[in-house]
Amino acid sequence: MTTARHLPKPDVNAPVLNSPALVYADQIAQLAIGPFVTKLTLGMDDGVPDVVPRPVVTIVMPTQALLQLADSVRAAIATPLIKTAIVDAQAVFQTEISTIKA
Fold first, then answer.
1. pTM reported for the whole predicted model
2. Which domain of life is it from (predicted)?
3. Other CB atoms within 10 A of residue 41 CB
4. pLDDT tens by residue, the chain, 102 residues
5. Domain extents for the chain?
6. At what angle do helices 80-98 and 63-78 cross, to 10 degrees?
7. 49 near 71, Cβ under 8 Å?
8. CA–CA distance, 30 with 39 (Å, rounded to integer)
9. Three-state SS for 60?
């Protein structure tokens, strides 16, 4: 005779992921685009000329989601408030860099 097995109820208030990984990358090291899935490897420039960036993380996601991300980034950057903030921040950086003496 078998007995019923009772599983605990899931905690609907528990976080799915406590803390997503935080990774810094400064360029795309590799990109493989397929009709359904895209593989994007981000990398770091180690300052060595003519060397492929050192991979730091690979993201695999639906190609459609990547296209939506690209559209969202372009739309955000095109908004006047964000565009002005980026241009102004770059101008301040250029000014600060130009005042540094060797």
1. 0.66
2. Bacteria
3. 17
4. 556 667 777 676 766 666 778 899 999 999 999 999 999 999 999 888 888 889 999 999 999 999 999 999 999 999 999 999 999 999 999 999 999 887
5. 27-98
6. 70
7. no
8. 8
9. strand
